[in-house]
């Protein structure tokens, strides 16, 4: 680890100001990606801005037709939340599958969404549910938020404060874990709303994406059989030592079916 | 204080008190006054000419004390890292043995090859300076696979090693095998890859070196399985330090699995550097550094053929293997795929003719050496796989074909056609026991239940034997060993009757402090709590070859047993004097020396006291004191073995293999501590399952980059991968070790890969699948099913 300055502001405007005034500074939420990167000396930000002392960023609130989760809420809290389990069980299940217990206790929803790792779980939940990313300056719809490999719509100095999820009729998540890392080799989130179905895929490509043919088919019939024959184009999908693109494409269909099963159960 | 706890009991492990309370003493826990920090600069290229190193920026970096390179080592006339085995080809031509400089000279030959050593006041300063070192590389193409390395036109690692071929080794009667093949009713053929593995002990490697100018003595603390061997190899052959001026300490070590049984360049560099900077230096490897510098294991490509008569009797076995050595010869490197491989190809069968050819090949990869099992898992995998292939092709049941060829219990001792003679064993007994324990007769019901859930269930057998208790020195010497393979133990009885044992094996997870204390407690009748085992320090322990090859109990325990016999023998002389009886009338039992047929007796403590306060003592004929030492060189290997049965379930939709049941019935000879044996089997089996289903070291051909260089990409087996294991023993006694022991450290790793893969193939056999290479990952299984172009619905 290389030396860096450490700031722990207690107001969001102060954090935003530090972030814009110190070039290449980094926010620390749970630190589950950032700290290992620093330890391996792969990144050397001049300053870290720790978000843990900011007020009102932790916790889950019931908005009736929505659930809002503070950006600094750890995965374990989401997984164990009776509110989330009751209204969006698929999202609670997703949170329970992230990493291992240590990661779930430290890692936060805001950190995961801001980092937009192509194999992270939360982006599938956020995009699949059509959630709204609430930041220090504005609200961003999930469809416009994720911009591919570690890229998001966040502007310099902009800090995620919460994610607001609409409560679906049904939702489910199915994850095929990469054997070593246990990130999603392929993860599929499926959500059924009164006006249609959303399907979001993580792990398979350079960033989370939706699958319109599956959404159409499931909107007509919310059953695994409706999508069993839908094949995913391998174009743009990842090939690595764990899985070639055609296997990932195949798994998208399998995991989508299982996500529907989970939503129905 | 306390009771006798002897052979066959399962006391809790003595060492766990300190481990579980955070009071272990590992190398990285040790701090020395004035200690500095060292960091190695390693090659980022698989193959490159080293055109020059500019140290100036690194030397000018804050806190830097020294920057050392291969040129400095050459100027100090330091030796090459030695190979402990010299093998030869069929014509007696010795293997090619290019120098292995501790810091690269002229060329780098794998990603991780050491280029420089930076010493600074703190680890952060050393790391920062290391990044400032300018190394001028002329990058060359790398060759990483054995098939590619021997092809014409392949990149050549050494100018004087044509075709990268270290040695073209063979064993067995080639002509007899060819004759048998001509008469065969059926020939089964199998091509397979034995995947490359990375050991990943929990504790990364680390070292501290210190030079004392007052006494001209060096001390090296190192994460080693064999400190005395490091003292010899490094002191005598690399750094020219006299043995009496070099102390090597291997304190608590967090797992070895072979990774820590070699003399590493890091040890030599840090010891040499400590004198140059006149300060103690500590180096602790990161996990990432371990991936590119810990010696790797396995990595074979094999073609095997089994000749059978019409009844399924094995007539002859022929095996051609290419074995990867990596960029240089490591301490045991060339011994593993040859002497520890070919002689195991007989297995538990009566195959009369066997021939094995192994081409030992250099590549631009981390040097390959022993990893738990070392050669024997590779041999077992080839044999147990081809037996299943033959059974399937001939339409003979897999258990039945094994029975038809098994060595019957009455036939022991059994001479194989590949050097080794098994002293004892009962493979049929282990098989019968395992069939019952695994509830094989109801497998069909379980398979049908799986099919109802859309899953394919399979059952796999591995009936195996291994050679361990390394090793009879004379035999090993004929095969090319350059050192002895005996063990030593000293039993020091204190004046108050407590006992300290100094033993040359090394305890790094095996529970020696417990099992060896049980042996002493049993043999001397002293309380278990009154026995301490000392190991891992060349200044405290007389000598030793260390721990590897399932040798500690077999060879070290034998030395310990002999030394306790000597204590009893001397105690009888003392007792005879004190009790005014003839020595031959003295009996020793349960810690008491008594005159046969009388109630006159002396306790063990009284005899110990008399030996150290020799007022009433036969000083004219007997020395005072009660301390005895024994060296033991085994007359043969020991041959543990058994039957493992794996049961898997395959999800055809995703290709995921789940191990659902695992049964092992093993013959490990006398069991000293059943709990520890069970633990060794658990750990060994998990490592074998890791090879079969999860672990794979993958290099990029051409660049030589390690693509599986972290725990994110190299899949270690985890607790949730395993079912509860059903472990039991069916022991026959070894006829030549003092206590009848055979060793158990590696059996699990040797028996299990074939059992698991045989189960996977069985699960998929109805789809025409005849072989699956390891690891049987979901991606690989799915692709196999795709290529089979068969419906994936369960039957």
**% residues in beta strands of chain A:** 15-25%
What class, by secondary structure content of chain B?
Answer: alpha+beta
Strand content of chain B: 15-25%
CATH architecture label name of the domain at 170-264 in chain A: 2-Layer Sandwich
What value does the Rg of chain B take, in angstroms?
28 Å
In quaternary terms, these chains amount to heterodimer
Helix-strand sequence of chain A: EHEHEEEHHHHHHEEHEEEEEHH
The CATH fourth-level homologous superfamily of the largest domain in chain B: Aldehyde oxidase/xanthine dehydrogenase, molybdopterin binding domain
Which of globular, elongated, flat, extended, rod-shaped describes the shape of chain B?
globular
CATH class call of the largest domain in chain B:
Alpha Beta
Structural class of chain A: alpha+beta
Q: Number of helix segments of chain A? A: 11
């Amino acid at each position: 680890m290389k030396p860096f300055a450490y700031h722990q502001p207690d107001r969001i405007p102060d954090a935003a100001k530090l972030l814009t005034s110190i070039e290449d500074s980094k926010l620390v939420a749970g630190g589950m990606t950032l700290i290992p990167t620093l330890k391996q000396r792969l990144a050397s930000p001049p300053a870290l801005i720790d978000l843990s002392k900011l007020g009102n960023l932790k916790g889950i609130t019931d908005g009736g037709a929505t659930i809002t989760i503070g950006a600094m809420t750890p995965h374990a809290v989401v997984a164990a939340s009776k509110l989330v389990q009751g209204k969006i069980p698929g999202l609670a299940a997703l949170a329970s599958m992230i990493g291992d217990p240590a990661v779930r206790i430290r890692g936060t929803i805001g950190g995961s969404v801001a980092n937009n790792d192509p194999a992270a779980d939360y982006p599938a939940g956020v995009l699949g549910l059509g959630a709204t990313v609430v930041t220090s300056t504005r609200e961003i719809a999930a469809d416009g938020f994720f911009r591919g490999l570690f890229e998001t719509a966040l502007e310099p100095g902009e800090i995620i404060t919460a994610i607001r999820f609409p409560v679906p009729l049904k939702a489910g998540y199915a994850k095929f874990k990469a054997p070593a890392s246990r990130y999603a080799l392929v993860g599929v989130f499926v959500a059924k709303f009164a006006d249609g179905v959303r399907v979001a895929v993580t792990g398979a490509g350079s960033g989370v994406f939706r699958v319109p043919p599956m959404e159409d088919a499931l909107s007509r019939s919310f059953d695994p059989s409706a999508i069993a024959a839908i094949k995913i184009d391998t174009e743009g999908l990842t090939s690595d030592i764990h899985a070639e693109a055609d296997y990932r494409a195949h798994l998208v269909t399998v995991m989508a079916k299982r996500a529907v099963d989970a939503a129905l159960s | 204080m306390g009771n006798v706890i002897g052979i066959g009991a399962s006391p809790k492990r003595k060492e766990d008190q300190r481990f579980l309370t955070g009071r272990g003493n590992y190398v990285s826990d040790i701090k020395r006054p004035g200690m500095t920090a060292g960091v190695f600069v390693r090659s980022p290229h698989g193959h490159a000419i080293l055109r020059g190193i500019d140290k100036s920026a690194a030397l000018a970096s804050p806190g830097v004390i020294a920057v050392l390179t291969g040129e400095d080592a050459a100027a100090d006339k330091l030796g090459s890292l030695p190979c402990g085995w010299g093998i030869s080809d069929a014509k007696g031509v010795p293997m090619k043995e290019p120098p292995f400089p501790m810091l690269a000279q002229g060329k780098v030959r794998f990603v991780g090859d050491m280029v420089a050593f930076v010493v600074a006041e703190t680890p952060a300063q050393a790391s920062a300076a290391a990044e400032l070192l300018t190394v001028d590389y002329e990058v060359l193409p790398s060759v990483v696979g054995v098939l590619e390395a021997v092809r014409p036109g392949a990149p050549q690692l050494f100018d004087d090693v044509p075709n990268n071929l270290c040695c073209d080794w063979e064993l067995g009667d080639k002509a007899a095998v060819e004759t048998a093949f001509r008469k065969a009713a059926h020939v089964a053929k199998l091509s397979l890859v034995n995947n490359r593995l990375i050991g990943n002990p929990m504790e990364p490697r680390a070292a501290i070196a210190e030079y004392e100018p007052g006494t001209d003595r060096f001390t090296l603390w190192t994460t080693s399985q064999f400190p005395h061997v490091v003292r010899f190899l490094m002191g005598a052959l690399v750094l020219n330090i006299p043995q009496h001026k070099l102390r090597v300490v291997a304190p608590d070590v967090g797992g070895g699995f072979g990774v820590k049984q070699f003399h590493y360049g890091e040890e030599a560099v840090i010891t040499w550097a400590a004198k140059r900077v006149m300060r103690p230096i500590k180096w602790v490897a990161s996990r990432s550094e371990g991936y590119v510098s810990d010696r790797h294991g396995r990595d074979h490509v094999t073609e095997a053929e089994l000749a059978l008569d019409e009844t399924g009797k094995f007539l002859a076995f022929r095996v051609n293997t290419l074995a990867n050595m990596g960029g240089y010869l490591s301490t045991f490197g060339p011994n593993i795929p040859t002497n520890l491989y070919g002689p195991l190809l007989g297995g538990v069968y009566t195959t009369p003719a066997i021939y094995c050819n192994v081409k030992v090949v250099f590549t631009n990869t981390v040097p390959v050496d022993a990893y738990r099992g070392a050669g024997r898992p590779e041999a077992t995998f080839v044999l147990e796989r081809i037996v299943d292939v033959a059974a399937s092709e001939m339409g003979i049941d897999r258990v039945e074909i094994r029975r038809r060829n098994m060595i019957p219990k009455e036939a022991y001792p059994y001479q194989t056609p590949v050097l080794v003679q098994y002293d004892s064993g009962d493979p049929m007994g282990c098989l019968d026991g395992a069939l019952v324990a695994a509830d094989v007769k109801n497998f069909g019901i379980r398979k049908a239940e799986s099919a109802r859930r859309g899953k394919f269930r399979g059952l796999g057998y591995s009936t195996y034997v291994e050679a361990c208790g390394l090793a009879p020195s004379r035999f090993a010497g004929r095969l090319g060993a350059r050192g002895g393979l005996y063990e030593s133990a000293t039993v020091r009885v204190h004046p108050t009757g407590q006992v300290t044992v100094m033993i040359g094996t090394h305890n790094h997870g095996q529970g020696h402090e417990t099992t060896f204390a049980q042996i002493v407690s049993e043999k001397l009748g002293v309380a278990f709590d009154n026995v301490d085992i000392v190991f891992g320090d060349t200044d405290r322990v007389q000598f030793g070859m260390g721990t590897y090859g399932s040798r500690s109990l077999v060879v070290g325990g034998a030395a310990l047993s002999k030394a306790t016999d000597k204590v009893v023998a001397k105690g009888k002389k003392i007792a005879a004097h004190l009790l005014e009886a003839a020595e031959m009338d003295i009996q020793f039992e349960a810690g008491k020396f008594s005159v046969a047929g009388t109630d006159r007796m002396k306790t063990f403590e009284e005899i110990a006291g008399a030996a150290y306060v020799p007022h009433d003592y036969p000083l004219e004929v007997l020395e005072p004191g009660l301390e005895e030492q024994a060296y033991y060189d085994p007359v043969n290997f020991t041959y543990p073995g058994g039957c493992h049965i794996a049961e898997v379930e395959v999800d055809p939709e995703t290709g995921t293999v789940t191990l659902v049941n695992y049964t092992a019935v093993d013959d490990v000879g006398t069991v000293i501590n059943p709990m520890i044996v069970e633990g060794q089997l658990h750990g060994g089996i998990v490592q074998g399952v890791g090879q079969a289903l999860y672990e794979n070291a993958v290099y990029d051909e051409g660049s030589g980059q390690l693509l599986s260089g972290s725990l994110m990409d190299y899949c270690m087996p985890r607790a949730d991968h395993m079912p509860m294991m059903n472990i039991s023993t069916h022991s026959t006694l070894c006829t030549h070790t003092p206590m009848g022991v055979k060793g158990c450290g590696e059996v699990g790793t040797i028996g299990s890969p074939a059992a698991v893969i045989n189960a996977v193939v069985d699960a998929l056999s109805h789809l025409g699948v005849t072989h699956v290479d390891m690891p049987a990952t979901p991606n690989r299984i799915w692709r196999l099913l795709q290529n089979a172009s068969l419906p994936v619905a369960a039957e």
